[in-house]
Design brief:
Elements: H1 2-13, E1 17-27, E2 32-34, E3 39-57, E4 67-72, E5 83-86, E6 91-100, E7 111-115, H2 119-125, E8 128-138, E9 146-148, E10 159-164, E11 177-179, H3 185-194, H4 229-240, E12 244-257, E13 265-274, H5 281-290, E14 293-295, H6 298-309, E15 313-314, E16 316-317, E17 328-330, H7 340-353, H8 357-360, E18 377-379, E19 383-384, H9 386-391, H10 393-397, E20 413-419, H11 426-438, E21 443-449, E22 452-453, H12 470-477, H13 479-488, E23 495-496, H14 499-522, H15 537-542, H16 545-566, H17 570-599, H18 605-625, H19 630-638, H20 666-691, E24 701-707, H21 710-714, H22 718-722, E25 726-731, E26 735-740, E27 744-745, E28 752-753, H23 762-774
Parallel strand pairs: 4-7, 5-10, 14-21, 20-21, 22-23, 24-25
Antiparallel strand pairs: 1-2, 1-13, 3-4, 3-9, 3-12, 5-11, 6-7, 6-8, 9-10, 13-15, 16-19, 17-18, 24-26, 27-28
Helix pairs in contact: 1-7, 5-6, 5-11, 12-13, 13-14, 13-17, 14-17, 14-18, 16-17, 16-18, 16-20, 17-18
Length: about 775
């Protein structure tokens, strides 16, 4: 609280804070002004009325004896009307009513002034069967024209001048806009430019003030945020004096309070503002946006548009809780006391006692060490906007905490992380607060995410009954599946969750878990004596090509993962790791090397190389998956062979392993791309024979491959790679022939070979002999 008030005082010191009377959005439910960040726009049904204002004086002959017709969606503002706006370059017409339809509130002989382009719509709405255009005029012809308020003689005995305004259009309504300076931004600004009275006709809780003729005490909006009776009283009174030409309703986007969900009104009141132009705050903020990394990139355009067009920041609230805008105003001049000693006193006392001291302490306590007399000043008891409070978090998180300081004294946060709605909220207020006090953004990067919807794409709501409880999901599926679902989703957009979604994620999870299980099983009995130094280039060069290929792929994946993480592309990390487990390992490397693991002699170098690569895969994969599948990887890490890996007791106390340069081998990748392509063709050729039962398994096959890459394919054991018993590679045009393998089946490795005489092949016989000798 002390830090927040110190941030407020920084704006007072640099001249960015001022008190002004402006039209602000006001919640009659919460009884306070709201800033843009606290406002949401949603559909609202408004009452629409067309009202006649009789012309009482004009220099334009065309409009004498006529009534100017206005249209509004806020009937409750009519007691606050003080002017009518027109477009100087627009064309208007005066129409004399000749005939009306049943139910019309008009009558023959009425002369009505409206925009030419909107005349037909007004005629239809007013149920006028026929009228005659008796005059045409330009908006500029209306200069100096004065109308009477429809309730003249009932307490509204003032002139209503007609004023030119560039915000008047002929898109809807009548082409004339009724002006209530107390209840609209454009209205207020136009009134200020022409010296028009700003009314104070509505109380903070949405009732007409006691001084308002006819309607004193009636509600504009109720405490529940519903249309009050004052709206309907306006219609009744307009009808009684014959000023109501037509009425209707309109559904349109309308501002509502983010908290109470109630519709807002515009209310002109004294408030505290931070100026967007003073100290070039807007310019500084726009440059800071460019200097920030936005994830996804579209966030930059969104917040840029908001800053470019936003008005001065209204930071005062009329609430009973929160940090006060702790200032002193001179009773005679109204000027703010700007004194560093006083500000330091306030900040120190707030830090020691909390901001309640502003109410509980004597005012003179805050003026200690100065010559000021508290009797000459008024304390400001308005509360600061909660978005100013949250926008100040960088000050007491990134700057005050030694353990969170960045290298070289940098005070900005690496990352701000929140939902996409915070472009108008936390991201927005933090940007303005920091730029106004420090001249820079408080963050290096901003990441925004969407929201979780139900399986049909609807927003979750307790009233609808479609809320999905993560705790119940975890009870059913486990926390890691929920985490994996999160990580495989595109967080930058809204995402859906449901049983089908998590079932699919469960399938992905099982493939990854089974990969870890296979790795642990393949490492059974792995000891330090069997371990090779895979950081030694000579050792790596001596290994079989397939193992070298896997080390190269580990190195490439490591680089991809680090790049994705730096860009916060977590979904790409999850999908990459799943694809690695499913395709590179399970369907390729494990499939090929199962034979070596199960059947080669324990001291066979090829098997030893395979086991070392498998241990390395486990070492890397468990670390990469740890942030995603935190429980599964912790469990797997607990089953690792003793004395092989680093001594970290928990997988979460590790960092990602760094691969050595000697694993890189691009030439090997090119060669094995050809091998993989040929392998795929062989497996596709075998599959129909297995489906027709001509072959029981791929090990019953003998493959003849005609190819131009004969030397390349002959340089590896292609029978092992294709998981067949025999391969013959011949020179020729690309072709694959599948035959029954010749010989008998080895009862140990299941290969069909001519050498099998006594149920076992030569390799298996040697391995068995070695195992017996070792035992």
């Amino acid at each position: 609280e002390g830090k927040i008030v110190r941030e407020i005082h920084k704006f007072a010191l640099n001249g960015g804070l001022y008190k002004g009377v402006k039209s602000v959005m006001w919640s009659t439910v919460e009884k306070t002004a709201l800033a843009e960040a606290e406002v949401e726009y949603k559909e609202h049904k408004s009452i629409t009325i067309w009202i006649k204002f009789p012309v009482v004086s004009t220099g334009c002959e065309a409009i004498k004896d006529a009534s100017v017709v206005i249209w509004t969606t806020t009937p409750w503002t009519m007691p606050s009307n003080r002017a009518i706006a027109y477009g100087e370059d627009m064309e208007y017409g005066v129409f004399e009513v000749k005939d009306v339809a049943e139910g019309s509130l008009s009558k023959a002989g009425d002369k009505l002034a409206v925009s030419l382009s909107l005349a037909d719509a007004v005629k239809e709405q007013a149920k006028i069967a026929g009228w005659e255009q008796v005059a045409t005029l330009k908006g500029s012809d209306l200069a100096g024209t004065v109308c009477a308020h429809p309730w003249r003689g009932k307490g509204y005995d003032f002139d209503v001048p007609m004023l030119p305004a560039d915000f008047v259009t002929d898109e809807d309504g009548t082409g004339f806009v009724h002006i209530a300076p107390g209840h609209g931004v454009d209205d207020f600004n136009l009134g200020q430019a022409h010296g028009i009275e700003v009314t104070d006709n509505v109380t903070p809780d949405g009732k007409y003030q006691a001084h308002v003729p006819i309607f004193a005490g009636e509600e504009v909006y109720t405490s529940k945020g519903e249309l009050g009776g004052g709206n309907f009283s306006v219609l009744r009174e307009m009808s009684e004096v014959g000023a109501l030409l037509a009425k209707g309703s309109l559904r349109h986007e309308y501002p509502h309070s983010w908290r109470s969900k109630a519709p807002l009104i515009f209310r002109t009141t004294p408030q505290w503002f931070i100026a967007m132009e003073t100290n070039d705050l807007r310019k500084t903020a726009l440059q800071a946006i460019k200097d920030t990394t936005w994830l996804p990139a579209k966030g930059e355009a969104r917040i840029t548009a908001m800053i470019e067009n936003r008005p001065d920041w209204c930071i005062s609230r009329q609430r009973a809780w929160g940090v006060p805008i702790a200032l002193f105003l001179h009773k005679d001049t109204g000027e703010v006391m700007v004194d560093k000693t006083v500000f330091e006193n306030i900040g120190r006392i707030f830090e020691e006692e909390g901001s309640d001291a502003w109410w509980s302490r004597d005012a003179q306590d805050f003026l200690e060490g100065t010559d000021y007399n508290a009797a000459d000043y008024d304390q400001v008891f308005d509360i600061v906007d909660v978005w100013f409070e949250s926008g100040s978090t960088h000050a007491f998180v990134c700057e005050d905490r030694e353990e969170l300081r960045r290298p070289e004294g940098k005070r900005t946060a690496n990352l701000y992380l929140e939902g996409s709605d915070q472009h108008r909220g936390w991201f927005h207020s933090s940007l303005l607060e920091s730029c106004g006090t420090r001249g820079r953004a408080p963050y290096d990067a901003v990441l925004t995410h969407g929201f979780v919807l139900d399986e049909k794409g609807y927003k979750m709501s307790k009233s609808v009954g479609n809320v999905i409880d993560p705790l119940k999901m975890m009870d059913q599926y486990g926390a890691d599946i929920l985490r994996l679902w999160t990580m495989t989703s595109d967080y930058s957009e809204d995402i859906r969750i449901g049983k089908d979604t998590l079932k699919n994620t469960g399938d992905l999870y099982r493939r990854i878990r089974n990969t870890l299980r296979f790795l642990l099983g393949a490492m059974e009995g792995f000891t330090a004596e069997e371990k090779l130094d895979l950081r030694d280039p000579e050792v790596v060069r001596a290994m079989p090509e397939l193992e070298r290929l896997m080390l190269h792929e580990l190195r490439m994946i490591e680089h991809q993962i680090r790049t994705h993480i730096e860009k916060y592309e977590f979904g790409k990390v999850a999908h990459l790791l799943h694809a690695f487990c499913n395709q590179n390992l399970s369907a390729f490397y494990f499939d090929i090397r199962k034979d070596s693991l199960y059947c080669d002699a324990p001291d066979d170098f090829g098997r030893k190389a395979c086991r070392n690569v498998i241990a390395t895969i486990f070492e890397n994969l468990s670390a990469w998956l740890a942030p995603i599948l935190c429980f599964t990887t912790e469990e797997a890490w607990g089953y690792r062979p003793e004395g092989i890996f680093e001594d970290a007791q928990s997988v979460h106390l590790r960092t990602f392993p760094e691969s050595p340069e000697c694993w890189a081998d691009e030439g090997l990748v090119e060669k094995w791309n050809v091998i993989k392509k040929t392998r795929k063709s062989v497996l596709e050729a075998i599959e129909p024979l297995r489906a027709s039962k001509e072959l029981g398994s791929s090990l019953e096959a003998r493959v003849i491959i005609a190819t131009s890459d004969i030397n390349l394919l002959q340089s590896v054991n292609f029978a092992d790679i294709c998981i067949v018993s025999q391969v013959e590679i011949i020179k020729g045009e690309q072709n694959i022939v599948i035959q029954k393998a010749e010989g008998a089946k080895c009862q140990r490795c299941w290969k069909v070979l001519p050498e099998v005489k006594h149920d076992i092949c030569n390799r298996c016989a040697g391995a068995v002999k070695e195992n017996v000798a070792a035992a």
